Amino acid sequence: MVGNHRIAAGWEMQVLHGEDHEGHPRLMKRKTLLRMQGGDGEGSYSRNSGMLQGGTLRTIGHNLADEISQLGTLTEVGPVRVADFGCSSGANALEWADLCASSIVRNYHQMKSVPAPEIQHFFSDLPSNDFNSLFRELVESKRPYFAAAAPGSFHGRLFPQHSIQIAISIWSLHWMSKIPETVLDASSPAYNKGQVWLDSRNPSKAAAYSQVARHDLLSFFTHRACELEPGGIVSMMCMSRGEHEKPELQCSDEFQEANPGGGLLEQSWEELIAEGVISPKELDTFNIPVYHLSIEEIKEAIDQTSAFEIKQLEVRRDHL
Amino acid sequence: MVGNHRIAAGWEMQVLHGEDHEGHPRLMKRKTLLRMQGGDGEGSYSRNSGMLQGGTLRTIGHNLADEISQLGTLTEVGPVRVADFGCSSGANALEWADLCASSIVRNYHQMKSVPAPEIQHFFSDLPSNDFNSLFRELVESKRPYFAAAAPGSFHGRLFPQHSIQIAISIWSLHWMSKIPETVLDASSPAYNKGQVWLDSRNPSKAAAYSQVARHDLLSFFTHRACELEPGGIVSMMCMSRGEHEKPELQCSDEFQEANPGGGLLEQSWEELIAEGVISPKELDTFNIPVYHLSIEEIKEAIDQTSAFEIKQLEVRRDHL
């Protein structure tokens, strides 16, 4: 039997149940697959992300549009290829694709003498993302680009070298590639007991998360540097913490207030324990792979890659 | 209520039911969506196509591999891009992708002085294709290409111009873009009464199918000519009829014997009528958009496109 538990609107976790040899119910295997919930049902990402993302589009969308509109000629020959890393499904993915395409067209329109190139937009996310839903929405109206999808983790290579001109990543880079090993080790001071988030003020735990997250970000920029054509751009937006805030302070009261989803997630786990679906000990093996980077950590990864020049880097508090 | 009827292993049709204002059951809307059945359940394409496609891979796969291995340098710069038009889901799509990639690598290995390029393989099919299943299988092992998907109909444009080097289409081009209007018109001699296939010997009906199918094929080659880089190749394999066989003879006794799935499909419709799910009249509105092209019709479309040179064209009877 598979039980689908909605742990926060838009996210899905699967718990598998079975029976032991005496017929008693027991937890057979818990898949730690955590992803945006597909489809268009009540708890789907598609139905629960509009307000959040709409705000993002309003606040930072025009920055991206301006940036693209000032890029000049994007390729010597061939189409302009855009890749959205961590696109998820739902209307938001399409809105960002439309924004990129219209900005590219405006750019060439301004140059007048140069004809507008064709555009190929790659929607990229983990293979478990609901691409079927995304493609259904995609065909509902004609769009000014050739659509394609690239399934895979943005912590690895996804495209041939120098084949992308514009890379975007919207509210995705706080997802880590894995949970730090010490966070799962009961004998370590970084052990995340009784919680699913890095939401305490324990410096050991925060350091362990920080180490993995910084490695992931360096990896992200290294792979994008290889995939991007020289002169291409990366435009990214992710959950972050304030400037000069220590890693262990990333989930500050201010953040919790702005992001009540974190609290709901903890509540859902408590309900699962109360229902006897999981034990408190099992809770300790489950952790959400999210880390809020600081401006300094982002700068560090970009400097280490030695392939990018920072054009704009800011912390905004108005989009949550 | 939605009833999923397995009308032949690997194919799926949806029938929607409801109640009229007096509470009697009635057919609300029949979606004429006909596609390969997704997932990996009993009736899925994935579980029911192995033997059929395995045979295809053995018999014509080596032709394609040889052809690719003799192509020389495929691009001046950048990756080699392969597109599979009508890929469906399941292991078959991956086997053809692997075959193309290994043939490209062998080609460059033979040339010795030229380093092998990176490969990007596009899986392309209708947006209703089960790409989620395909992507799940894709990640099970590391593959020698960057995988991507392009959702859409191969009767239209799917890629930027000159961006593909190798186009393949395996057992897909017998699918038409639509059913001829006269076939749905009760007053026309081409009306397909009591059947779901073009399986009679009625010349009017066959001519109507032939007209749409020839237009579709010309459209397929025109779009591929635009998408392919000069020097690129198309390798296609589809259900066809024998040389010099008239359109109305395409579903000959020999074909029926080799393709018993057609008969099972008719049987399934008869069962739906017997169960009262649909009426005989409703059967007349449903037709399978399949036409078996002749060698002459394929030659005609290629000649009309004026963009391709035929390197090899043959009818084989040994793969069914």
Structure description:
The structure is a homodimer of 320-residue chains. With 320 residues, chain A is α/β, with parallel strands linked by helices. The first copy, chain A, has a domain at 37-172: Vaccinia Virus protein VP39 (Rossmann fold), CATH 3.40.50. Chain A has 9 helices and 8 strands. In chain A, the strands form 2 sheets. A 5-stranded parallel sheet of chain A has the order 6-5-4-7-8. Chain A has a 3-stranded antiparallel sheet with strand order 1-2-3. The longest helix of chain A is centred in the C-terminal third of the chain and has 25 residues, at 203-227. Mean pLDDT of chain A is 81; it is low at 1-20 and 23-32. Chain A binds chain B through residues 38, 78-79, 118-120, 122, 127-128, 130-132, 135-136, 138-139, 146-152, 157-163, and chain B through 38, 78-79, 118-120, 122, 127-128, 130-132, 135-136, 138-139, 146-152, 157-163. Chains A, B: This is Jasmonate O-methyltransferase. Chains A, B: One of its GO terms (molecular function) is metal ion binding.
